[in-house]
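User: Show me a protein chain along with its predicted structure.
Assistant: Here is one chain, sequence first, then structure tokens.
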Amino acid sequence: MFDVLIKNANLPDGREGIDIGINGDKIVAVDQRIEAEAGETIEASGRLVTPPFVDPHFHMDATLSLGLPRMNISGTLLEGIALWGELRPTLTREALVERALRYCDLAVAQGLLAIRSHVDTSDPALVTAEALIEVREKVAPYIDLQLVAFPQDGYYRAPGGVDSLNRALDMGLDIVGGIPHFERTMADGAASVAALCKIAADRGLPVDMHCDETDDPMSRHIETLAAETVRYGLQGRVAGSHLVSMHSMDNYYVSKLIPLMLEAEIDVIPNPLINIMLQGRHDTYPKRRGMTRVRELMEAGLNVSLGQDCVMDPWYSMGSGDMLEVGHMAIHVAQMAGIEDKKKIFAALTVNSAKTMGLEGYGLEKGCNADLVILQARDPLEALRLKANRLVVMRRGKVIARSAPRFSELKLEGRPTAVNAADYAPLRPDEI
């Protein structure tokens, strides 16, 4: 007897016709043709069942603030930072909490149940930290929310930035952040990396640093981050986000850099939507793509996750909380269109990002948390192609969101009466 039995599911690893038995908040059985009674039976009908989507890089304190106090006319990173600087003094805890909770509603509907958010600590009032800590508590039943103490204006560059970051960590933020390429000099940037890694080591915390979000090939703070990770024994606890300058670096230098990153066990978090929107702005043509070397980093054995970064804020006027949109863009920008490539991209939205965030009980094996999503697609490749509809979202064995299957009615003589885009999956060899 199960509380919930999901029938005839396809799993991301290629297994098909799988039943998943759930008791309480745990998966207790994963096998073909499970014959048992259940309080609720959900028919997957050969659709993909996946662990929840995970966003390891987001800015929840800024989300849904598009147009406040004005629009980013140039669409550039620097104007976005300046615009956030105008908005920040007007922020209230209540407004921050309301926008963040609205975004979390959207995330749940998209099957996104774990988020790591950077929290700006540059304003000594730390209203952002207070608000996001409140949000973390409110959404805990349905979203794993991690908070990064992030000195948006620079750890050394912002007045009182050192003290503000330390106070934010004392308040209960989870992770040490940084932005070395935004310090006044390369030397200050390198010094900030060393100081922030020492704070993490002393406090026993992870590190997640905005690193080299610039087209400048000489911005090499990821090298410093990897070296300081080894120096302080932080291997496996440090993430480098963006790493955009790697797309412009000399290949010989990168051939030395990647092994150093491997030694440090750095997690890599590109943000495809934002990276290609904000980078290459000083180029005419040819114009650089603005995303780090995803294929090369994956092939080297580094854990590569994909983040969304922004949704409708001063930096990015687009976004929908859909991690499949992130993966869809990554396939195009990284030119990873092969079958195995797409499987790796899907993993970067799920299991890789769960590893980056250190999520316990994540997965679809016996004993894992009963957190899962049923998609209107038969496999990861089709889910990415279609940016597939989320039919069922489950958290700890409870359905928390449902959507009706998406199809269109046709009124054409002699043609079918309905079209379901998920029916257009390419034929497999055994189906030809």
